[in-house]
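User: These chains co-purify. Model them together.
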Amino acid sequence: MSAAEMAPLRVTVNGKHFDGSVESRTLLVDFLREHLQLTGTHIGCDTSYCGACTVLLNGATVKSCTVFAVQAHDGEILTVEGLAKDSKLSPIQEAFASCHGLQCGYCTPGFLLSTYFLLSKNPSPSDKEIRKGIAGNTCRCTGYQNIFKAIRTASESAARGRV
Amino acid sequence: MLEQLGEEAKPLAGGQSLIPLMKMRLSRPTALVDLNFIPDLNRVERQNGHLTIGALARHADLEHSPDAAKIPIVHDCAAGIADAQVRNRGTLAGSLAEADPTGDWAPVLLCLDTEVVTAGQRSPRTIQLPHFFKDAYTTELAHDELIREVRVKVPGKNSGGAYVAFKRCAPVYASASAAVQITLGDKDLCKSARVFLGCVGLMPVHAAAAEHELAGKTISTKSITAAAEAAMAAAEPASDMRGSADYKKILIKNLTRRAIEAAVRRARGEKVEVSHEYVGR
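Assistant: Joint model of the two components:
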């Protein structure tokens, strides 16, 4: 296959429409970072393990290093840049900040979106459900305790209807 | 389309195995045909005593399906595969078609009466799952043939199953796994048993000797222990980064015992929670 085989791509990212084309081999994470300059989505392992590249595709979390950009055609994507509204952090972001749910911050965008997905589906998760919900995200700084506390704190807001 | 593109083209379903394999250059398809835009292939529904699983049904669709929950061994498997992100994307049919020896679905579905329905240029075929797997990473499917759906017979009332897999952490493949389906008669008499082991051979290992220790006998600590020992003897694991062969054999004994215990309790009508085991779960 020629390297530059282009394919059409029409997609909505954080409410903004993109209508253009990409190389069909482009991964979703590279499209977000290199084409849209949305560099909040990180590439950690690039092997579908660490979850730093987690975004929502049509309402469900995916590891964007393991999806081709063209597979999102006609779809809706939410990245970490889409969480804050009117320059105000979302309740999940507030909770991660107040509970020190991050140190270096590299994994944080992925954790925020996994938390968003978890709490949108289940605003009052049990401890076990929280652990299961973030099992696909790796953090090498915090030891997870403060991330867990942040998700618990965010769930109090989610239970009142604000994710 | 696959026929036109030639032998080196591949269909793409969830992509959770194929895309990582392509990144490692272990798979180098010349073209991919994305199946994800085909409508109505993601259904999970009960029809005439069968659970019908469409080619694009994700692990998460099965995890949350009330129909799939009626077959607890299927729910155990779906709910524990990898992590939420992979379950949102990966498909059961893709997992069967890949036939990875460490895949979760094959041992589970071999414990049930499962058939694979194909689609392609030639006329559709219905293949019983035991005949579907030919070798590691090799199935009955022709190059231009796809799985259309997978049909699982819903077990009867006195039947219970469980799947227990051990993995080092959530996103990785299991180190070893055991799937068990047991049908009970009166007073805990085991009418029939099926035991399949994962990750300890090039294909799922059918532990017939373990079944023999259970079938026709009353369930007891003694029969369960004998079956677990027989499963351990049937396992042929290889040493790798997931553990030594000896370690995996011991895992198999304990996972089989736990799977039998959970299967028996479910066959009695009790609710039991079991799933993949990993640190921090």
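The radius of gyration of chain A is 16 Å.
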